[in-house]
Amino acid sequence: MTDRVRIDLGARGYDVLLGPGALAAARRHDVLRSPRRYAVLADANVLRLCSGLVAGALEGLDVAGAPIEIPEGERAKSFATLEMVLGRMLDLGLERGDAVLAIGGGVTGDLAGLAAALYKRGMDVIQVPTTLLAMADSSVGGKTAINMPQGKNLIGVFHQPSFVIAEFGFLDTLPDRERQAGFAEIIKTALIGDRDFFGRLEAAGQNGLTIKHLQAHLKTAITFKAAIVAADEREAGPRALLNLGHTFGHALESEACGALLHGEAVAAGMALAFDYSVRLGLCPDKDAARVRDYLELAGLKTRLSALPGRPFTPEAMLQRMRHDKKNSGGHIRLVLARGIGNAILHDQADSADLLHFLKDQIQ
Ligand SMILES: NC(=O)c1ccc[n+]([C@@H]2O[C@H](COP(=O)([O-])OP(=O)(O)OC[C@H]3O[C@@H](n4cnc5c(N)ncnc54)[C@H](O)[C@@H]3O)[C@@H](O)[C@H]2O)c1
Questions:
Q1: Which numbered atom of ligand 1 lies nearest the CA of 44?
Q2: What is the pLDDT of residue 326?
Q3: In the structure, what pLDDT confidence band is assigned to residue 323 with cuts at 50, 70 and 90?
Q4: What is the pTM of this model?
Q5: Are strands 343-349 and 332-337 parallel, antiparallel or unpaired?
Q6: Is 322 noted as a catalytic residue in this protein?
Q7: What is 177-362's CATH number?
Q8: CATH 3.40.50.1970 fits 3-174, yes or no
Q9: Residue with the nearest Cα to atom 7 of ligand 1?
Q10: Using H for helix, E for strand and C for coil, what is the string for 305-353?
Q11: 253 alpha carbon – ligand 1 mean position (Å)
């Protein structure tokens, strides 16, 4: 049974189909029925491991040439890959009314979204996320980006997809570690604004990642994100709350030089954000303890001394946090919490205090 969530953005609104059988359901959807050609951008591992599902995704579509293979890994989010993709699309003779079909995780989705936004001043992109992280987060909301030597996701545009198809069959080949990391983005939505949802996650315990529970959890998370994106598409206000755990997390991810997955870094970052909220007297101690306990139960490490990529240096982490693109006016901007389900923006973090906090955490 497939679920549907609507991203309500007026003329730029779109549906997200999710669950087992989403690809089959998508074939009956109007977006795939309009006659046009498709450039297919697909993650190299997905092409190798999920050929049957990829063939299913392309069934009945007028596909231009062979799929354009996106090398696996974060390094593919580069100008070099973007140029390769755009060149191939030009060679295929695609027109502005044609569309890009992105099949892969967040790396492929972010790159494909940007390529679609740039090609002949913009064409449609349909996202077929194949990792849990991409289903829960990156395929929805229209953020696209590539990385620069100076940092992650620094060059990009907002470009909403016209359809998202989250087919659970792809999760069969996804390594456990990737699944757990993706689950962090689902937990994040509960921590930001839905205390009851967090209670349901806790109640499901270690079964939260089984397909039976996962569909309900994913639907709740996407519905939550949909409301925030609809209210603040370009992150002028409340959408920034979706960055809970990301300021600490990006610093950890960059310092770990590839040893830490994005979702793992976000999970540890969320634990830090709750602990720092306790330190500032914003959040009850017991809420931060519940967050840490549940993340650990979900297989996500929260202690900096146990994280892949350790040891971390407080000064280096603070330096990374100073360059976070969410900062404004030279101040570090954090998403903190008054409790589970009650995230808030904290605009002018005190660097000296943050350094003390990080030193305490790293001991
Ligand atoms: N645009 C946004 O709003 C947004 C939000 C969150 C994260 N992101 C970005 O998303 C990226 C992380 O996404 P990700 O975690 O999906 O990483 P990813 O795309 O690198 O995929 C993770 C790994 O899983 C493999 N893989 C993908 N699907 C598979 C499948 N079905 N079976 C087996 N292996 C599979 C990939 O080859 C890769 O090795 C980061 O670049 C991050 O910046 C973007």
A1: 37
A2: 77
A3: confident
A4: 0.96
A5: antiparallel
A6: no
A7: 1.20.1090.10
A8: yes
A9: 138
A10: HHCCCCCCCHHHHHHHHHCCCCCECCEEEEEEECCCCCEEEEEEECHHH
A11: 14
